[in-house]
Amino acid sequence: MLLMGLVTVVVTALIPIFLWRLGAKQAERDSAMTKRQAETLLRQEQILRHQRRDALLEILDRASDAAHLALLWREVRGYEGSDKDLLTGVFRTNVALALPGTSTGVKVVDDLTGTAVSQYVDGLERRFTERAGGINPYDGLLEFMETATNQGAEFEMSRIVRLVTGPSAEIQRPSHGFFRKLVNAFPSTAGGLLHAVERIDSRSFGGLKLNVLTGTLLAVKDVELGRLGQRSILHSYASTELRDSVPQALAFLLHRDNLRSFSQWSLVGSTEPVSATVAWLVRAVGWLADTDNHLAMRMIENLAAAIESIPDSDRGWGVDDSDVRQGFEWIRQKQPALWDAHGTAIQAAASSIGPWKKDQHHSE
């Protein structure tokens, strides 16, 4: 009986331990099962999320309904990491969206970071190719650029230059006035626009080649005359920017004979006569003649040929004769040796186009 009692005591003591171990193993199995279930659910959720992401990629740049776009924008903003970057990038190329700072299209609240601005720019070619220019070519572009710049974002101006001098320009048909406004607002585009003149086909529809050159040169005159405000920070910056970039670009164009064939350029759609453009070219060369001696030489030694190539239909300086006189006077003052070498030919070329001296007008 003593032995039986001892066995009973031992068994009684072991039962809780056995039950505890049994419960621990069951809990471990339950935990493992719960973990597997959670992992399975997570994988399923990821699969569904990726499937939805792929479906969104098919519609984000094509949706046009305002309410639908608002829902899509909220959904896209709910993603994280690389998926969010991808989706927001595609969404911002949608041409139905209003560019930030403009009112044409569906508006969404967006943070204009550098990445966001770059993504909006990705969609500009399509936007302005699908949408006709009408009265306002590249409608909203300058407002968008100004809004983004005021919020601290920066633009890769070479992309903007390629946009407004590329295929979309055939649809938008920008006048010289558009390029004048672009350079006045963003002087860092001037050099790129002038370099683009070489690339643009002289037969391009809408007089694009001449309008780009004309608008840029007129913007240079605006800055030189202080039309942006002599005391403003913008004028000081613009003057420095143009005097740094424009001489190199003009010297390049003139030296490579890009500006001695005006008579062969398509003028259909151009918005100023060639004689006005060349008068502003002469004035710009004079204003910039003291920035670099080598560049001045390249500009001045090729100036006569550029003047002589004005087509017969546009001959006569008209009210722009004062720009011709001012340009010549500056060249004479700033580069006397170059004027001695080339001045006679330059003046003769100008006279072949029409009267430009004050005494010539008095004698008529």
Give the SSE map.
Layout: H1 2-59, H2 66-77, H3 81-91, H4 114-122, H5 124-130, H6 141-150, H7 157-164, H8 168-172, H9 176-185, H10 190-199, H11 208-224, H12 233-255, H13 274-288, H14 293-300, H15 303-308, H16 321-334, H17 336-353, H18 358-363
Helix pairs in contact: 9-11, 10-11, 10-12, 11-13, 12-14, 13-16, 16-17
Structure description:
The longest helix has 58 residues, at 2-59. 68% of the residues lie in helices and 0% in strands. It is elongated and about 145 Å long. It has helices spanning 2-59, 66-77, 81-91, 114-122, 124-130, 141-150, 157-164, 168-172, 176-185, 190-199, 208-224, 233-255, 274-288, 293-300, 303-308, 321-334, 336-353, 358-363. The protein has 2 domains: 56-155, no CATH class; 174-364, no CATH class. The protein is built from 18 helices and no strands. The protein has 364 residues and is mainly α.
Structural class: mainly alpha
Helix amount? 55-70%
Kindly report how far apart the N and C termini lie.
150 Å
Average predicted local confidence, pLDDT: 89
Instruction: Please provide the ordered H/E string of secondary-structure elements.
Output: HHHHHHHHHHHHHHHHHH
User: Stretches where pLDDT falls below 50 for ≥5 residues?
Assistant: none
Radius of gyration: 35 Å
Overall number of structural domains? 2
Largest sheet composition: none
Helix tally?
Answer: 18
Approximately what portion of the residues adopt beta-strand conformation?
A: under 5%
